[in-house]
Amino acid sequence: MSTEKVRGIVIREIPVGESDKIITLLTKEKGKITLSARGARKPKSKYLASCELFAYSDFVIYTARKYPSVSSAVLINSFYGLRKRLDCFYCGAYLSEICNRLIFEGTDCSECMLLLLTALNRMSKGLSESFITSLVFELKFLLINGMLPDLGVCESCGKSLEGSAHIGSDGLLCSDCAKDEKEISSGAVKALRYIYNSDIASVFSFKADKKVVEGISAVRDSVMQRQTDREFKTYSMFKDICLEKNE
Ligand SMILES: [Zn+2]
């Protein structure tokens, strides 16, 4: 039996039997891993808090059976603030589902992990709104994974985009190349460029008016649809809550 130390965040939890759990973590050391957490649902379990969704902890794991198991855990951050606001909680659940579905076991996920931690931390502290956080996260996540086209140039003629732009089939189009594709404002084009070029520490810290958010949102819809032919279970719940909030 071997033991190892990893630092990771819980992106999925599945109850098993009466008191156990299977948890999936993003870790810096081993990428995405799945662990068995025996007794983690018992109220007196020493690692109850460390095995909950969004919990960021130092784990000691041992491998003896099918899944490696949690041997001990020390909680670093539970991002408790997310549990006080329904929209932020469901946004966090949606971002976690993106990570779980689109990151493969055994691949380096340290940048995506940092992106998730930054998004959860900002929402938990009330520094970022959930809807804009989801947009920025999705686009940056696709960029990190090589799935986002260059949004600074026209996809057809390659000209650098100045002013407004149109949503093309694989990115953005300048007004010379566009026919009747949906137009987005120059503010939205600038915001997209900011998301594209900023580092993870500062990518979430910008404010956008309604028109800009609409533009980014339309680009996100088009890119996400093309790149991920998957339906995310948590996305419809999150979207419904955002719509209710804005009514
Ligand atoms: Zn063009």
Describe this structure in words.
It contains seven helices and eight strands, in the order βββββαααβββαααα. It is α+β, with helices and mostly antiparallel strands and 247 residues long. It folds into two domains: 2-78, Nucleic acid-binding proteins (OB fold (Dihydrolipoamide Acetyltransferase, E2P), Beta Barrel), CATH 2.40.50; 83-246, Up-down Bundle (de novo design (two linked rop proteins)), CATH 1.20.1440.120. Helix 1 (86-102) packs parallel to helix 3, helix 1 runs antiparallel to helix 7 and helix 2 packs antiparallel against helix 3 (130-144). The longest helix is centred in the C-terminal third of the chain and has 18 residues, at 210-227. The model has no long low-confidence stretch (mean pLDDT 92). The chain binds zinc ion.
